[in-house]
Design the sequence.
């Protein structure tokens, strides 16, 4: 049984790593879309914000699909309990994620300012709501959920929105917003990057306060003990690392150390997810009242042969996925620059500029500003 138990734990950790990777990458996507209306002064700035994440946002979503698929295959009972209890919350996230994806594709289909503004709002809400709800959901998991003796949750969406969960949602919202501001300062230049750095101080301060409050509240609230759980010092230490990393990232981006700032906010996201997973272990669906009502790794796991096959497949194909995504970031690594205001036409393809037919935000690159507007290019 020992190898089986070790493989269960390994896949629990791997799924946590997939979630951490998703929130690290999608976190700055969410953040850019959330802060874009604040840091942008005109339509060109908004296009620059979308172009900054345009080549990578859909690739970042793959981490969510992989995490969901791995959960379904490795821990089917956990997957079933999550969708049984958190159905409305997960459905809400899915609706807004779909709307967000559509907004990237549809924004430039009509050359009309009102059309673009409408899709800008869709893009904003499609990032704001998931950024908030993910924090609520994960805070509920670390705090514990009121479960029936059969291990089911019947409280619906209102039951998930208690004060500590709302604070956790605000922590994720402000952390992702800061992560997006840092990414904009790293990927853009000029006034847009300067405005992003100035906004980082109030947003970073809010992120430090809400994240520190969530860590302290969860640590002091306690939860029924589960056999084999880690000492509370482990998630607490990771939570403290996350708070310190947020503070460091805020200071670094203000000092225009953009690369180090992005590494710091990224570390904050990863450490936060490490705190969540270490706090949950060995439960995958922890109970807030009676520990026996919760669902453990061993009870939720698939058969041993299933986990073996998953491990072999993951070992073969995951490196290729990582290499491809790393190559994408390398290709689109340069800063975006705002074109000269005096420029009124897009250069023809083959004449030293990009094709006027390219789009922003569709994963095709930095994109051209169509309809007689200047082109955004890599520096």
Sequence:
């Amino acid at each position: 049984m020992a190898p089986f138990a070790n493989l269960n734990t390994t896949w629990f950790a791997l799924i946590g790593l997939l979630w951490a990777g998703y929130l690290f990458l999608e976190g700055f996507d969410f953040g850019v879309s959330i802060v874009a209306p604040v840091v942008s002064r005109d339509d060109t700035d908004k296009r620059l914000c979308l172009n900054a994440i345009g080549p990578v946002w859909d690739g970042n979503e793959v981490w969510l699909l992989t995490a969901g698929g791995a959960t379904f295959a490795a821990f089917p009972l956990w997957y079933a309990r999550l969708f049984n209890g958190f159905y409305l919350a997960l459905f809400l996230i899915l609706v807004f994620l779909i709307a967000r994806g559509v907004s990237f594709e549809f924004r430039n289909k009509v050359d009309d300012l009102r059309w673009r503004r409408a899709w800008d709002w869709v893009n904003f809400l499609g990032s704001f709501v998931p950024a908030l709800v993910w924090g609520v959901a994960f805070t509920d998991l670390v705090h514990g959920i009121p479960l029936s003796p059969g291990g089911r949750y019947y409280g619906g969406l209102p039951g998930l929105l208690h004060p500590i969960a709302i604070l956790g949602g605000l922590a994720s919202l402000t952390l992702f917003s800061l992560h997006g501001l840092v990414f904009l300062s790293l990927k853009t230049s000029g006034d847009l990057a300067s405005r992003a750095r100035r906004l980082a101080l109030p947003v970073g301060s809010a992120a430090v306060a809400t994240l520190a409050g969530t860590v302290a509240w969860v640590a002091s609230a306690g939860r029924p003990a589960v056999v084999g759980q880690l000492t509370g010092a482990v998630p607490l230490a990771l939570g403290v690392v996350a708070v310190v990393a947020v503070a460091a990232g805020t200071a670094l981006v203000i000092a225009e150390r953009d690369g180090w700032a992005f590494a710091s906010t990224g570390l904050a996201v990863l450490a936060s997810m490490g705190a969540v997973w270490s706090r949950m272990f060995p439960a995958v669906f922890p109970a807030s009242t009676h520990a026996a009502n919760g669902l453990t790794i061993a009870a939720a796991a698939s058969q041993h042969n299933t986990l073996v096959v998953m491990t072999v497949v993951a070992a073969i194909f995951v490196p290729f996925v990582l290499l491809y995504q790393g190559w994408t970031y390398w290709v689109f690594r340069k800063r975006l620059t705002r074109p000269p205001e005096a420029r009124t036409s897009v250069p023809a393809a083959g004449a030293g500029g990009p094709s006027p037919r390219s789009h922003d935000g569709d994963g095709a690159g930095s994109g051209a500003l169509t309809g007689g507007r200047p082109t955004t290019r890599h520096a």
